[in-house]
Structure formats: structure tokens, C-alpha cells
Amino acid sequence: MDKVYAGSDGAEIERFVHAGDLDWNKFLSMRVLILKSNGGAYKTALKHASLPLIPTMAIHTSDIVRVMSNRDYKEGNPQLIHWGKFQIIARIAKQMLELQGRIQRTSAYNFQPHPEVAQILRDIKPMSEEMIVEKTYPPLEDLPPPKPGSAWSARVIRKVLK
User: Fold this and answer.
1) Domain assignments of the chain as residue spans, ordered by start
2) 10 Cβ neighbours under 8 A, 6+ residues apart
3) N or C end: fewer C-beta atoms under 10 angstroms in the chain?
């Protein structure tokens, strides 16, 4: 879902869409949940979901980044810690831990073990601020040229706006 949502590798997604493996109604309803009210509808649905599920990390990461950009101290007195900021971060982290726990305790999914993926996830290399900016906003000359005939995103926009 995240690959389709982000529009990465348009040609591969184009083949996936034409193969009929994508249920457009499910995709579009998920997309509406994510886009409506800056993810507010998605967060409400997430709160009321009782089944184990895999969260869309883009929404939660965005929330954490937004909260982290706020000051660490009270506006009127820099000597006082702004505890509300840290409570929000803890609430987001707690929700992610609860969702992970639900997935680990369920037999609803049958995930095959992938040791290579597990190793990548365990081998965390923190990025500096410069690296984050570079990865987020790469120079235009580093971007691959657009592939001919990849009008996939325009077609998705037309379907969403119908």
C-alpha cells in the first residue's frame, strides 16, 4: 500500500494494477482514510479497530516529526520542561507498541520468516540531519528521468476525483 501511495517505481505499479491484483475500491477507501483531515479519519479508524493490523507508519512518523519540532520548554519560562510534548510522543509510541503486540499475538496472519529483512531492521544506522535533508530533497540531477508512458499518477488522480 505504501509503495502505491507513494507512487514509487511507476512502471512496476502499472504492471501490478493491470494484472488485476489491486482492488481499487479497497485502495481508494484506504487512500481517503489517509488523506482526509491529515490522517484524522485513519487515526479514528485505527482507534476503533479491534483486529490485529499493520499501521501506516508514514502517518505516525509524520506525527512524531511534527511534535519533535516543537520546543522542549514552556513558552513563558524556558526553565520549565514542556511535558505535553513528551506525553504526545509517548502516546504515539505506546499505540505502535500495542499494535505490534496485537500482531505478534494473533494467528490471523501467516508471515513467513525473512532473516535478511530482520537483519536489515535490526541493523539501524541513524542518519544525521544533513542525510535526512539529502534523502528527502535529493538534487534534481540525481533524480532518474521520467519513464515514457508512465501516466499512472494522473490516472489515479482522475479515479480519486470522480
Assistant:
1) 57-111
2) 147, 150, 152, 153
3) C
